[in-house]
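Example 3.2
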Amino acid sequence: MKITFPHMGNIWIPVKALFDYLEIEFIVPPHNSKRTLSLGTQYSPEGSCLPFKLNVGNFIEAAEKGADTILMTGGVGPCRFGYYGQLEQEILKDLGLEFELITLEPPNGSLIGLAKRIKQAAGNKSWAKIVGAVRFGYRKAVAMDRIEDIIHWGRPRAVKSREVERIYQAALIKLEQAQNVQAIDQVVDETRHEVQGLELKQGFEPLKIGIVGEIYTLLDPFTSMDIERHLGRLGVEVDRSIYLSGWVNQHLFQGFNKAYKETMHHKDLAKPYLAHSVGGHGQESIGGTVEFQRRGFDGVIQLLPLTCMPEIVAAAILSQVSKSLNIPIMTLYVDEQSGEAGTLTRLEAFIDLIGRGRNLKQEVKYEQRVSWG
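Structure, written as tokens:
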């Protein structure tokens, strides 16, 4: 058995740690690319979303390297993600690729059900070994989230933004190679020290933009057309409504672990605008936007794949949130036709808009201070 999995951003680092710990043979699919998307688009239904097509491309490329088993998470509610595994398995079967499918999800909220599926993937490994592997992989996921947030802080502030990217890539390599908890923590500390030690722009206060939306689109740079890097180089500090460890803790572990930047409270924040789940991350996108507004962010960008029903519902409601909370919101749809140049143009226009808005607010506050003495 050679296991593979979807290549969503940097998720391969904690997943690789899990498999290495369990001494399971696995195949990391190549990073998402134009070839991955071309393969997935060729064999996927026309109306399927971009993450679905990339998954299919991932598995075809992994099969070329010898993979025969798919490990992926499941979904509940009206989001199509819950059917991904089965549909992708049938598509691959039609192509002559026989894959076994293992879906990691707590059936009906049962952690015992989740544990049994992990055991299926782990084979004859002891429960102690499995628990240790899950904890180690999860620890890397938390560290990865912390590193990404350090990079979010450094990109707009560094005089030479390319130095931040160099530190980021080196940190990912060191995190992937870390063999124990102490080494993992050391990577985070070293990354923070290196970024803070760079030459920084004096007296510069970056605009702050929160990014909400569907998890695959948020976490995978190829899918988002590297929006976080572009925003950072344009002088914007970004934050996401979803980080990997928070999603894993909420979706798989039912909140029993400590994650980086938990998101479970987003549903409560969304209730005045959307009181029930619409599947996917629709409700969380609204709650995340409310939180960003409360934290004083200058604007919010919603990222979603074309045809994603939960995020389409959220997009319609976010227009009301924008007016109610007086925060600019831009919605970006992505599919196989999306272009990086056009996206960058839209980002520049949005940044110009919110920059003018911030200046206007500062002028009003100054006038109030003067008039009130």
